[in-house]
Amino acid sequence: MNTALRMSIKQWAPEDRPTERLQRLGAESLTDAELLAILIGSGTQQYSAVDIGSQVLGKFNHNLNTLGKARFDEILDIEGVGTQTACKILAAVELGKRRQIATPELHPEMSTATRIYNYMLPKMQDLATEEFHILLINQNFRLIKSERISQGGITEVSADIRIMIREAVLNNATIMAVCHNHPSGSTHPSRVDDTLTQSVKQACEVMRIHFLDHVIVTDGAYYSYHEQGKL
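Predicted structure:
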């Protein structure tokens, strides 16, 4: 075997290590052996984790479908593979199988203020203090995720626009809506609400993110800046 291949992965250049490459380039950039090496963790004096991963694949004809049918004892029989490693490999295989039969997660449509209100009402209707949430949305108006940005007092809540924009960028959102509740039951926006709305709009314009709406939620009614023509 080539001397370079016998080196511990820790001795490799940082940019060549599987874990670092996964973080930098994504899991799809790694070979099957490198992905197995991450599960294996550490090698032996004779073999690196990548070498052991290659041996695992070799035993099963370099076919992941064949590996998926392997028994515990067949994997454990490979040199350099211990009980914990065999368990990790079988666990990863089983997760892959379960993903194939899992129901895709539903992403609700958030194209209107009514849809935003109906989604957020169960989260906000019983709150005693104000909370500010963002809804990150893709180009098809499907929700990527919603996240609470801040919580405050009975009549006011502050929100950091930098955090909103950062979350939108990290989640590849092309559309964003914001939402907060009024525990008082009043749907009328305050001057602070108006100022914050315009600031969020300006920040979204700079980042080329479509600012869809700011919805104020109360138990039974809502206020939409978009519907009121204030965006």
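Summary: Residues 1-5 have pLDDT under 50 and may be disordered.
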